[in-house]
Amino acid sequence: MASSVVVLGIQWGDEGKGKVVDLLTERCEAVVRFQGGHNAGHTLVIDGQKTVLHLVPSGILRPQVRCLIGNGVVVAPDALIAELDTLEGAGIDARTRLMISPGCPVILPSHVALDQAREKRKGSKAIGTTGRGIGPAYEDKAARRAIRFGELLDPDSCARRVEELADYHNFLLTERFAAKPVDVAFSVASCRSWSDALGRLVGDVSQELEDLCKSNANVLFEGAQGTLLDIDHGTYPFVTSSNTTAGAAASGSGIGPLELSTVVGVIKAYVTRVGSGPFPTELFDSAGAHLAKKGHEFGATTGRPRRCGWFDAVSARRACWLNSVSSLCVTKLDVLDGLSELAICTGYRINGQALDRPPSGAVTLADCEPIYEIVPGWKESTASIRVIDELPPLARAYLNRLEELLGVPVDIVSTGPDRDDTIILRHPFPQS
To answer: Is residue 377 domain-shared with residue 290, that is, in the same domain?
Structure first.
């Protein structure tokens, strides 16, 4: 029986979702991106060759996989064109296997300018966005003024709409932020060139998904960012501008929720965060330096160093509930190699009161102190181990403890960046 599987991160992003999606698509006919934009950075390593994807679904390296960009994604056409050119330059037939929903909002140059102007105005209180126009594009979508991808196919009508929207953006740029306006004619010309380059890729993603499901095809839904960055359920306002939870897989692609059979939650064996916002288990000592150095913790999209901390079971439990997570994938287990002791956050303390669940709001979370359970580390290497019984006993004990705390089985363990550096205990797509 075919399956529709959602793969998403249940921390603050950068959990290693790209590798997991690429791995699982060996048994898939299609991969769907359903939210976010080119602020995502999914890194794939196959036989030592690294590929970083921002908009194109992570199944693109599998020649049999159809790749779909759902209506919940905001698309920067210039970034998408550059990404496709890079893939095809590497010998990957990308354009013939990609479909873009006509409902995807388009990121214009003025969205980028607004994003950067706002962050600059906020100064030390900046959220830490990627500055790529994601937030302003989602704003326009909610305000019903967005240019949607399908509109690019009607150049004259699109030109009028772009002129109107760019004028509005320029008013904000000049009057609110004292920034330079964006050239409206350039935006119009850009849309015409994007239509020429990408117009033939526009298609009915919802219908495609219906056809795939009726043919009993395996379909994977690929999330971006992480649950703790969800616009509704994350550490607001230090969040992204979209819903990053499993519920968005249905609304952001055009599939009924009952068609989704499994949710795989991806977690690092520790926690990282890029940008501003509360982070109860953040480390500033030698252990934090170890995680950052050995884990190569730099953002795939921005290059910014990631903040590192011990595993937070409190936030992860909430994320498992929000997403109906049925299966866990633990990544970067090998980064913990060599540490004599590890800490797991099992609760928070605020004003002398112990909490076993996250409080509401970023301000309150920032005042929380972690309650730690100390467990022994291991000196042996777990790097590139592909059989569970070959892991050091203390590493297996650590995984077992995460299972106990989250109430969800660990079915996949990543022990290195390469596709094959993986232990699969239970595959979400059973072999027929």
So the answer is: yes
pLDDT bracket for residue 299 (50, 70, 90): low
Please tell me the distance from the alpha carbon of residue 315 to that of residue 270, in angstroms, as a whole number: 12
Give the model's confidence band at 90: pLDDT under 50 very low, under 70 low, under 90 confident, else very high: confident
Instruction: With beta carbons less than 8 A apart as the criterion, state whether 364 and 238 touch.
Output: no
- pTM for the whole structure: 0.93
Rounded Cα distance between 247 and 227, Å, is 11
Q: Are residues 299 and 227 in the same domain?
A: no
Question: Are 194 and 152 contacting, i.e. CB atoms less than 8 angstroms apart?
Answer: yes
- Provide CB contacts within 8 A for 153, sequence distance 6+: 102, 195, 199, 202
Is 31's pLDDT higher than 90?
A: yes
Catalytic residue set: 14, 42
Q: 104: number of CA atoms within 13 Å, CB side?
A: 35
Q: Are residues 85 and 117 in the same domain?
A: no
Residue 386 inside a domain? The answer is yes
Q: Assess whether pLDDT exceeds 70 at residue 302.
A: no
SS3 annotation, 307-360? EEECEEHHHHHHHHHHHCCCEEEEECHHHHCCCCEEEEEEEEEECCEEECCCCC
Statement to judge: residues 15 and 148 lie in one domain = no
Q: Structural domain tally of the chain?
A: 3
Q: Using CA atoms, how far apart are residues 32 and 69, in angstroms rounded to an integer?
A: 6
Specify whether 123 is located in the same domain as 135: yes
Say whether both 238 and 98 belong to one domain.
Answer: yes
User: Which range has the worst mean pLDDT, 105-114, 299-308, 374-383?
Assistant: 299-308
Q: DSSP string covering 170-186, please?
A: HHIIIIIS--PPP-HHH
Domain that holds residue 348: 267-424
CB 22 within 8 A of CB 43: no
C-alpha–C-alpha distance, residues 230 and 247, integer Å:
11
Half-sphere exposure of 311 (CA within 13 A, CB side): 31
Question: Per the domain annotation, does 431 fall within a domain?
Answer: no
Q: Considering 259, 279, 309, which residue would you say is the last residue of a domain?
A: 259
